[in-house]
Amino acid sequence: MTGRDGERRVTITDVAARAGVSRGAVSLAYNNRPGVSDATRTRIMAAVAELGWSPHQPPGKLSGSATGAADTVGLVLARPARQLQLEPFYVEFIAGAESVLEEHGCSLLLRLVRDTAREVVVHRDWWCARRIAGSILVDLQHDDPRIAALRSIGLPAVAVGHPSLTGGYTSVWTDDETAVREVVRHLAGLGHRRIARVGGHPALGHTILRTVALNRAVADLGLEPALSVTTDFSAEQGARATRGLLGRAPRPTAIVYDNDIMAVAGLAAAAELGLAVPADVSLIAWDDSQLCRLTYPPLSAMSHDVFAFGADVTRRLFDVVHRRNPSSESVAPPVLVPRGSSAPPRGTRQGQEVRG
Question: How far, in Å, CA of 312 to CA of 100, rounded?
Fold first, then answer.
């Protein structure tokens, strides 16, 4: 059978031949039914993805692609639902993704799960049931177990993270090293020499990259070694980490947070301890949001267009699904927006010019 353009259409027989199985096995695997082993199912779905076969090709911007799947993009987040509603980053990121999907008449399938192992199961179920045309992978880890598992079934995806973490998946990421260096230079220029950081989960790739960048930046500028504390990004752990840091002797004169929620909690924790911000301690949040502008004093923050970031990632996924050979790319790094929460430490009349 040939298509309108004269090219021969891929058939179930072609898929069976490529996978070395019967047509019945292809049907069972494609429809996610029992009767074939996991290894055989994986081999069949890889052949399906490679050949771009589908028994039915409904019209649509993604369903007309090489995958033959639904006009839907998958996104799985491993975090509690209550925490997600408090995270401005993912609210903006999802809104940006939806803006592109709406342009193309497509939709987003979102699931919250307890951990990455469950995330793999959800992605696999969606893909084998042809519910999605591709996925967006976020919160990448060092040696992330999702990468090999999802590549083995041929799932088209774009990974949000540095290429060193993505195992060959097309990726879009922010230049965290440049952003961290800007924060450190700002604080050093104000006269700070003891800088601490309240980071995210220790397994996350961007937590590791930011820690390395922070250590390198303070060493290059001749500051005291930085202390990094890891958390789960929640306000509770952000406040607890802040209390611990400010209870040290000598305590840091500046703290950088890996998200805005923890920075707001840190501001409250400092007040509980009777410390003034920024006279006793300067605070800087990552990912500027409305929260940072509503506090008193307003929080200095690393700002970037998260809405546009989500849109860029989704456009890149369309390129992947349609096999346009997209390259990975870094978007513009976050830019520091100084506000009332960062100033020279107490006893310092003016900042120092920092070179290098």
Answer: 9
